[in-house]
Amino acid sequence: MNIILFGPPGVGKGTQAVLLAAGRGLKHLSTGEMLRELVKTGSEVGKRVDMIMTGGGFVSDDIVIGIIADRIDQPDCANGFILDGFPRNLKQAVALDELLRSKGKAIDRVIEIHGEERALVERISGRFSCANCGANYHGAFKLPKLTGVCDYCGATKFTRRADDNVETVRVRLMAYYRETAPLIGYYFCKGGLESVDGMPPVDEVARNINAVLD
Ligand code: AP5
Hints:
Strand content: 5-15%
Number of strands: 8
Radius of gyration: 17 Å
Strand order of the largest sheet: 2-3-1-4-8
Number of helices: 9
Helix content: 40-55%
Bound molecules: BIS(adenosine)-5'-pentaphosphate
Distance between the termini: 11 Å
């Protein structure tokens, strides 16, 4: 099964994609994560991408479409994949359709997760992650069980994303409503669109997503 998860920054796409991928044996493909890896290479392209992401804008369509085109051909996507953060505008959605058609594949379900803007800003401004394994935490909602120690790998260093501050979150939200939200209409017309509320606790959102997929 191939799934698109989309929704505004902080609504829980990444959190839910990890759970879904583990529960259904699908590959989680996050363009945000792939771009952050590209930034870490320190290449010229990586430096340009870093500046765009730090400012909250969208990276060029050609770069992200190219990344996804390479990635969905890998063997670990053979059982299906979850796209998290892609497509983000109409050009990317159309490119994805063409790409999948050329490979005899298709998207089976599109899940739009929605949430309340104030809560999204709060979620993102409090988010931090383990510097070693990348596990996600939040200063108010999800602290490590033992203060300063990652629950999953025991590391003691944590990081914050450069774009996780109140000012940049507002720019990211604006970009979402301007460029990505119109895809709700696009996927409604194509069929297979489901909407899920991202505001309840993580487990409840996961149950609701699984219910619409089943
Ligand atoms: P990306 O990494 O995709 O960021 P985003 O879309 O802004 O989404 P986030 O990762 O911030 O939030 P999320 O919805 O995954 O929520 P999460 O589960 O982490 O993109 C970053 C940048 O990369 C973009 O701005 C752009 O520059 C570039 N980019 C990426 N894709 C691109 C593309 N296709 N084209 C062009 N540019 C692209 O949860 C957030 C927090 O809330 C966490 O702390 C979590 O623990 C907590 N939380 C989650 N669910 C719940 C819940 N139910 N209750 C309470 N807390 C919760």
